[in-house]
Amino acid sequence: MARKRKIVKMKPAQKKAVAEKPWKLKLKTLEIHGGGSEKDTDLRPGLYRATAFPLGSFERAKKLFAGEERGFIYTRINNPSVDKLERRLAALEGAEAALATSSGMSAITLLSLHFAAPGGHIVSSNRLYGGVFHLFRENLPKLGIAVKLVENPFDLKLWEKAIRPNTKLFYIETPSNPAIDVFDVEALARLAHLHNIPLIVDSTLATPALLQPLNLGADVVVHSLSKYMGDGEVIGGAILGGQKLIDDLRLVWFRDTGPCISPDNAVVLCYHIESLFGRMAEHCRNTLLVAKYLARHPKIKKVYYPSVGIKSRLNKKLMPKGFGGLMAFEVKGGTRSAKTILENLKLFWHAPNIGEARSLVIHPATTTHGQLTQKERARAGIPDGMIRLSIGREHPQDLIYDLSQALSKI
Ligand code: PLP
């Protein structure tokens, strides 16, 4: 017999409170509605392919250029399509504001210049995408910015020891590329703030579907939008943080150096972001299955995925929603074996990207992290036999079959 449902009646005062409390949209909804929707004009994010915008009166032009009034000036500085992307990203990260850039690298360069030029000092994890490692080790010092790469970035005491009077920022990538290290953003932010230093987090591999570093105490989030956000279609980057920081960046280094994103790419990104959460869930599910398979394989020395190994419980606490679609493994037999596997994979594309529908493979030591010396790679946990996989959204059994047949060739 069906049970009678008890109807709980709300008192008038309760009803009023519910009606008055503003409803907060869930993150899943913000991937589609984040940043506001122009209900009366564009159902989809509109493309404003224009170089410049009418300034209006003499006085308004003066105010716009001085940053005293908000408005569109020139696409190198701002643009309505780019603004839509920025507002959506800010909504997803829980940030006051965002600045979209031409690439992840330009976003990181801008932040370095803004915070540390000239004569400043950066303390950074050494577990970084190779391009960022090279920027920090080679090029920022040429501009008068010193960088200390912490060689065991899990040890907070080493971060504290690295601080100098001119330290301007702490920098981490979590999870990191390619070793998928997961860092405790809260603990690092606490330490940074004790010394009045801002913490910048590269959250490219997590995306806001899996982690919101600003809610954990980080001061700034930086993204390469060229990965999951754009589903492999476009290059882009973003900086997220307080309104003042974003305004300052936009009006100084960004305006003067010109690394803007095109309105076309901004619109493409808005479309792809609408499916981000669903795609990330699929990447997480597939990667977990592939990692489990590889962890049991006799020819594999080590699997790099946060759910595997002694840190798995801690990692789950730090990233309870999942770890995304990037993983790596070290094969027995070093570079030779890695080469054989890479050349025998049939379904995986050999390509230098992360976060696409199709699965991708690369050998970090000779490509993405080839600018590091052998010693630097060893200290950053990148052995010669490491292969990085960006797990896509194919059926996981097909991916596992492909890996097993390639592994059988060594
Ligand atoms: N951050 C991470 C974690 C990356 O993996 C990359 C590129 O692979 C970048 C930043 C740089 O981004 P972009 O290629 O968009 O310049």
Kindly describe this structure.
The chain has helices at residues 12-20, 27-33, 58-66, 80-93, 104-116, 130-142, 156-162, 185-194, 207-210, 243-257, 263-273, 276-295, 312-318, 334-344, 374-379, 396-407; strands at residues 97-101, 121-125, 146-150, 167-173, 199-202, 220-224, 237-241, 300-304, 326-331, 349-350, 360-362, 386-390. By secondary structure, the protein is α/β, with parallel strands linked by helices. It has two domains: 27-273, Type I PLP-dependent aspartate aminotransferase-like (Major domain) (Aspartate Aminotransferase, domain 2), CATH 3.40.640.10; 276-407, Aspartate Aminotransferase, domain 1. The strands form two sheets. It has a seven-stranded mixed β-sheet with strand order 1-7-6-5-4-2-3, with helices on both faces. The protein has a five-stranded mixed β-sheet with strand order 8-9-12-11-10. Strand 4 (167-173), helix 8 (185-194) and strand 5 form a beta-alpha-beta unit. The protein is globular, with a radius of gyration of 23 Å. The structure holds pyridoxal-5'-phosphate.
Give a count of the beta strands, DSSP E runs of length 2 or more.
12
The CATH H-level homologous superfamily of the largest domain:
Type I PLP-dependent aspartate aminotransferase-like (Major domain)
Biggest β-sheet, characterized? Answer: 7 strands, mixed
Separate helix tally: 16
Principal-axes shape call: globular
CATH topology (level 3) name of the largest domain: Aspartate Aminotransferase, domain 2
Widest sheet: strand ordering: 1-7-6-5-4-2-3
What's the number of domains?
2
Q: Could you tell me the mean pLDDT?
A: 95
